[in-house]
Specification:
It is built from 9 helices and 13 strands. The protein is an alpha/beta fold and 300 residues long. The radius of gyration is 18 Å and the shape is globular.
């Protein structure tokens, strides 16, 4: 089973006043839907309210055969919204509207196994109000040798001025087998734009991790053991980059799950196909205003 753990909300993607679309969103929801559409069984661990927005999201997930049994719904509470304003390069800047109850909880899987994969990350994974719940799930997955993938998704360095949050990022890196983030994410975490230094910095925290750095239009760089690879980005007529990194995650998880590559040796020796499928999934999402691969997407 694949589990994705993170915040869910409704994305309002704004190109212009007359060019706006509404989609269920949140990094882990986006990845879960892309995986479901590629035929992979996946369950989303998240929180929603009990309003009309949550109904839209849950109906959408069920239509896409994404597991909803681990979704916490809070009574008399509104679901979060995200306004995503696209710039000339189709990159989003966000305004979030959130309202969580004082007491929050996550629905834990009863058990994990060595065949399971858990993806988590974003600022949600650092949230002090839900951090203990997240750590208990990650710890359980780790204790049962599940493959843990962490995507920090830190878009602004100021988010880490709080030392507790920076400490949480380091803890997340330490416990994960695959750490995948953008060069921008790692620059915000480690204070350097040099990708080689970023690889070294992650390695100092977790020497056994597979590290993947996405480079936007410059492609992707990765290191596993003594193996280092770099691939260019695929040519794409970019409509929106919302969900691009989430689709990349779906591509690598699809490959790992389909080819049974959960062990370190197999990951290292199949790094090329893992990265290429990540790029393929990401490219197709960038060519539309959707946050996930289309239902018609053919996996070669």
């Amino acid at each position: 089973m694949i589990y994705t753990l993170g915040e869910s909300l409704l994305d309002i993607i704004i190109n212009t006043m007359d060019d706006t679309v509404v989609r269920p969103g949140g990094a882990m929801l986006n990845t879960a839907v892309s995986l479901s559409r590629s035929g992979i069984k996946v369950s989303l661990i998240t929180e929603l309210g009990d309003d009309n927005t949550s109904k839209l999201i849950i109906d959408f997930l069920r239509k896409n055969k994404t597991g909803t049994e681990k979704i916490t719904q809070y009574q008399n509470n509104n679901t979060s919204l995200a306004l995503a304003f696209l710039d000339n390069n189709k990159k989003p800047s966000y305004t979030f509207i959130k309202k969580y109850p004082e007491t929050r909880t996550l629905l834990h899987p009863k058990q994990f196994s060595s065949n399971d994969i858990l993806l988590f990350g974003s600022l949600y994974s650092l949230d002090v109000d839900i951090r203990d719940n997240i750590l208990s799930i990650v710890t359980l997955a780790n204790a049962n040798n599940s493959l843990i993938i962490y995507d920090p998704n830190i878009r602004n360095a100021h988010h880490l001025k709080d030392k507790r949050l920076l400490k949480a990022v380091y803890e997340n890196i330490e416990v994960s087998k695959i750490i995948k983030g953008s060069d921008e994410d790692f620059a915000n975490i480690f204070g350097t734009n040099n990708t080689e230094k970023q690889l070294e910095a992650v390695g100092e925290i977790n020497k056994d991790a597979v590290v993947i750095i996405t480079l936007g239009s410059d492609g992707v760089l990765a290191k596993a053991g003594n193996k280092k690879l770099r691939f260019p980005a695929m040519r794409t007529n970019v409509t929106s980059t919302v969900g691009a990194g989430d689709a990349f995650n779906a591509g690598i998880i699809y490959t790992i799950n389909s080819l049974n590559l959960n062990t370190g040796y197999k990951l290292e020796n199949s790094l090329d196909i893992i990265l290429k499928n990540g790029l393929r999934f990401s490219s197709v999402v960038c060519s539309s205003l959707d946050n996930y691969i289309p239902e018609s997407f053919t996996i070669k």
